[in-house]
Amino acid sequence: MVTIEQIKKLRDATSVSISLCKKALEDSNGNEEKAIEYLRKQGAMKAASKAERATNEGTIAIKIKNNKIAIVKLACETDFVAKNENFKTLAQILAEKTLEGKKPEDMKDDINDYVVKVGENIQILDATIIEADSSMSSYSIGSYIHSTGKLAAIAILDGGDKELSKDICMQIAATNPQFISPDEVSADLIHKEKEIWRDQLKKENKPEAIWDKIIIGKEKKFREENALLTQEFVKDPEKQVKDILGNVKIVKMMRVSL
């Protein structure tokens, strides 16, 4: 019978997943040397050596349960693997486990087992949980993932429904707002922008007497373009996002990209 100590020793020596170490030892009747040979034949040790290779492709997975949202960014080496349905399924499984409270380090076995199959470096770049305030009498959670799998957004609304929350997520993904409301734009950011605007006006030889008036207009436009509520609604540019929300409030939003 294979012991936990044997599995741990083999894993420390090879960096291969616990499940593969266990199988290798079982197939080798507990003989460590034969287990290592087994792993070499399976390509597992070669896969472990890939961990330092660049991961410039990948996909995003989102799972929602009750008032919680799990977002996982899973990276790989090539676009070929990123588009594979098995890779996308792995990302969904990892998102489910994140929702259950697992950390990236708890999911190494899932990653290592898949590395053996595809021969690429696979890495969890991020695993995040966002929670809606369960004390809200009515809330809706929405998510959107672009067809490329590399761009996603989530939104938590106080009120509304699934369709509205998805529309808001598509808006967030398309326009990348930095704030929910114009009044959330920080004074420091406005100060930096004003310095840039003054330099621009000076280069354009605008009369200094009208700078303040022009800057007031620029500040208003800057706040509105960078705040979700005052952006043009992508599905109907004649309206702003706040117009389609009515009395519904946006509590949280997040845009994620690879």
Give a short overview.
The chain is of the alpha+beta class. It has helices at residues 4-14, 18-27, 32-42, 44-48, 79-82, 85-99, 108-118, 162-175, 187-203, 211-226, 241-245; strands at residues 57-65, 68-76, 123-131, 139-145, 151-158, 232-233, 236-240, 249-257.
What does this structure look like?
It is a single chain. The chain is built from eleven helices and eight strands. The protein is of the alpha+beta class and about 260 residues long. Helix 2 (about 20-25) packs across helix 3 and helix 9 (about 185-205) packs across helix 10 (about 210-225). The longest helix is centred in the last third of the chain and has 17 residues, at about 185-205. It is elongated and about 85 Å long. The relative contact order is 0.12.
State the domain count: 3
Q: Mean pLDDT, nearest integer? A: 90
Q: Which architecture of the largest domain would the CATH scheme give at its second level?
A: 2-Layer Sandwich
N/C terminus separation: 44 Å
The structure class reads: alpha+beta
What would the CATH topology of the largest domain be? Tetrahydropterin Synthase, Chain A
Main CATH class of the largest domain: Alpha Beta
Strand order of the largest sheet: 1-2-3
**What is the H level of CATH, i.e. the homologous superfamily of the largest domain?**
Elongation factor Ts, dimerisation domain
Backbone shape: elongated
The proportion of strand residues reads 15-25%
Main sheet specs: 3 strands, antiparallel
Binned, the helix content reads: 40-55%
Oligomeric description of these chains: single chain
| Secondary-structure element pattern, one letter each | HHHHEEHHHEEEHHHEEHE
Helical region count? Answer: 11
Q: What radius of gyration results from the CA coordinates?
A: 25 Å
Low-confidence stretches: none
E-strand count: 8
